[in-house]
Amino acid sequence: MSYVELEGVTKLYGETRALDVERLGIEEGEFFALVGPSGSGKTTLLRLIAGFTEPTSGTILIAGKTVQHLPPYKRDIGMVFQNYALFPHMSVYENVAFGLKVRHLPQAETEARVKELLDLVRLPGMEARRPQQLSGGQQQRVALARSLVTRPRLLLLDEPLGALDKKLRTAMQVELRQIQREVGITTAFVTHDQEEALTLSDRIAVINEGKVVQLGPPADVYEHPATRFVADFLGQSNFISGSVLSHEAGRLRVSTPTGLHVFARSDRALPANANVTLAVRPEKIRLSTARPESANAFVAEIVHIVYLGTSITYHLKLSEGTPLISFDRNEGAGHTYAIGTRVVAAWDEENSLVMQD
Amino acid sequence: MRRLTPASFVVYAGLVLVFLYAPVLVMMAMSFNRSPLYQLPFQFDLRWFVALTHNQRLLQATGNSVLLALANMVVATILGVMTALALARHQFRGKTLLNVLLVPPIAIPWLILAIAMLLLFNFVGLGRGLPSMFIGHVAVSLPYAVFVILARLSGTESTLEEGAMSLGAGPWTTFFKITLPLMLPGVIAAALFSFTVSFDNFVISYFLAPPGVSTLPVEIYSAIRKGFTPEINAISTITFAFSMLLAVFAVRLVREA
Predict the structure, then answer these.
(1) Partner-chain residue, chosen from A73, A78, A98, that has the shortest CB–CB distance to B170
(2) Rounded to an integer, what distance in angstroms lies between the CA atom of residue A210 and that of residue A10?
(3) Is the CB of B165 less than 8 angstroms away from the CB of A72?
(4) Is A13 on the interface with B (CB under 8 A)?
(5) Predicted ipTM beyond 0.90
(6) Is residue B252 a part of any domain in this protein?
(7) DSSP H helical segments within A90-164, as ranges?
(8) Helix axis angle, A166-183 relative to A136-148, nearest 10°?
């Protein structure tokens, strides 16, 4: 029995179906990411779990208790909002202590817990400051401390790192995960940044147009995207469409309209002439000047280079016209190709992923 | 935009201020003048302020004005808070209609509103009297209160209230600990505006006041008709000073919002 369960949950706004989730479970203690593009319904889902909206149909259970009719202040949750929602007319201490004051905790214990939490988020001694006097990163930490001080059993985060700059965001991601592990709290985390979701979570749910498209551990979902959408949303993919030429012993041979023959692996039954789309991740494509052993090896010309510091993106054009993108590590000037160079682009057949749509 | 030269600005502003305040200043000065017929030369005397203390009519009228204004302030502000909260934080049927209906009392001349109220209250059997005056005052103060508070509320986000709720605060706790403190400047400004609107109100009070009941503005008007002494000036000076203080206070609060 998962700690949080959604069954048959839908949310309609008039005619629009904002969310349609048959089953979703969040396990106790896990860091669960809800990721998807803007408007996909991920925030709606989080707000349903929090209690700010009621589902049009379905049940939501937290710790086995049916909660969809309970308001947020009757659910045992902590929440961090995208803009932190710190009370500007209160000090840091009063902000963090708010949840305890509402529960009429004695003064001494309130003080002790506030101090404990401020130490946890590495903001000791900030009690007297006002939120307006803090930097973005500090505000974020106060918001986190405030949400954890009541020792809730469920933590909900709505794009909490969205307002921070890249470097700070990366640092906060690490801290956030460390704190979550230390406290051991079940966490649901909404983000549109797929990289963030992959980095932080134990499990990811990819959401698009109100539906959960794929669910699983990050590595699984990344390496085995079920649909074209997931292959494109998480990381990047090259898409090659064609029809099945042969399918023997798991080895699939696909022919594209331009005459390219690509090899893939698939356990699914795919009849001859069936239309398939293959996804090949750019990092799985190796470039070399000599012809390698791989089944998929094609001559290509480099038409564009993007220098990213840690890596180099090559835009290639195969001899029959198919465009491809490949990522290469930046191993120094001696190992990079110039525009116009003819290379061989190769990848293993296992890395041609068969899409289900 | 072209910049005004300091000289032209001073001249312009000076003229405006003179136009606005010269009559008032003359009126106030005459309240300290000995002559009952407003004759110069100027002789400083506080006799009219002393005479005021014996003028039952004027004092009673002032008392009515104050009581009415206080009652109006309390009710209009509370209703204003409720209305502004509903408009700012909730969706409901008829929301647009409500927004639209709040505008006429500000736009329609109070003379017409007063006549309409008189007709309505007669028709309903309420007639003239303090209750009618009270209802009339609240009706014209409410839009001001709502808009002032709404302006303040729109500046704060509703996520603050959601944050409070996620921490375990129910609706009342959230209101008193989060919403109200944040919109307090707006609430105080609304209170002061509604007090002023009621205290200074002539037209509606005049139409809805029954025989024997008067408010200060109405009493001053009657006195001008019937014959008066600078006691009128004295009470006006006091009223003016008081209103100015309230207005300045209210404007500063609204600016803070």
Answers:
(1) A73
(2) 9
(3) yes
(4) no
(5) no
(6) yes
(7) 92-102, 107-120, 136-148
(8) 20
Residues of chain B positioned with their CB less than 8 A from the CB of A78: 166-167
Neighbouring-strand partners of residue B26:
none
Number of folded domains in chain B? 1
pTM of this prediction?
A: 0.81
Alpha carbon of A85: minimum distance to chain B alpha carbons (Å): 5
Q: Please say if the pLDDT value at position A26 is more than 90.
A: yes
Confidence of residue B211 (pLDDT cuts 50, 70, 90): confident
Q: Position A153: which residue type?
A: R
Answer whether residue B227 is part of any domain. yes
First to last CA, chain A: 32
Q: B27 - beta bridge partners? A: none
Backbone angles phi, psi at B116, to 5 degrees: -60, -45
The residues spanned by each domain of chain A are: 4-233, 238-354
Range A171-180 burial, b when 16+ CB lie within 10 A, else e: ebbeebbebb
| β-strand partners of A254 | A244, A262
The CATH H-level superfamily of A238-354 is Nucleic acid-binding proteins (2.40.50.140)
Residue B27 is assigned to a structural domain of this protein: no
CA separation for the pair B33, B23 (Å, rounded): 15
Q: How far is A293 from chain B (nearest CA, A)?
A: 58
What element of type H or E holds B216? Answer: helix B216-226
Per-residue confidence (pLDDT) for residue B207, from 0 to 100: 92
Strands of A57-62's sheet in order across:
A16-26, A4-13, A57-62, A65-66
Give the minimum alpha-carbon distance from B257 to chain A in angstroms, rounded to a whole number.
13
Q: Residue B88 maps to which CATH number?
A: 1.10.3720.10
Alpha-carbon distance of B113 to B140, in angstroms, equals: 9
Contact B114, B105 (CB under 8 A): no
A86 reaches B (C-beta below 8 A):
yes
pLDDT in tens, B157-190: 788 999 999 999 999 999 999 999 988 888 988 9
3-state helix, strand, coil split of chain B in percent (to 5) is 75, 0, 25
DSSP reduced 3-state for A163? coil
Q: Do the domain assignments include residue B239? A: yes
CATH code 3.40.50.300 for A4-233: yes
Element (H, E) at A21: strand A16-26
Containing structural domain, residue B205: 56-256
**Contact list, A102 vs chain B (CB under 8 Å):** 167-169, 173
Residues in chain B whose Cβ is within 8 Å of chain A: 157, 159-160, 162-170, 173, 177-178, 181-182
